[in-house]
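User: Run a structure prediction on this.
Assistant: Running it now.
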Amino acid sequence: QVQLVESGGGLVQAGGSLRLSCAASGRTFSGYVMGWFRQAPGKGREFVAAISWSGGSVYADSVKGRFTISRDNAKNTVYLQMSSLKPEDTAVYYCAARPSVAAGLRKVDQYNYWGQGTQVTVSS
């Protein structure tokens, strides 16, 4: 059974930093694209960042230059380093996985596996 388990969320002041982790287990994720999404209260789930097996990455415009996605393939773990956090970054952050780099990296319905989410709260 595939499992994605996020950790690292919490409460931080505006301008601060957090690093989220997502540990994958249950199968080999060789070649998989890993992504981060977030969902704020009352809003839909939105794309944050994604990274391919080889390390190529894409970001939402709203986080570009502030967030960095990375992965350790040996550990089946993906990270999201978040800096210069803003109150509007407050959301539940989800890790997701899909088997290919085909079109649709930014779309929620193109990911096969999801974690349970971790809360990030940024106070002003």
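The chain has no helices and eleven strands.
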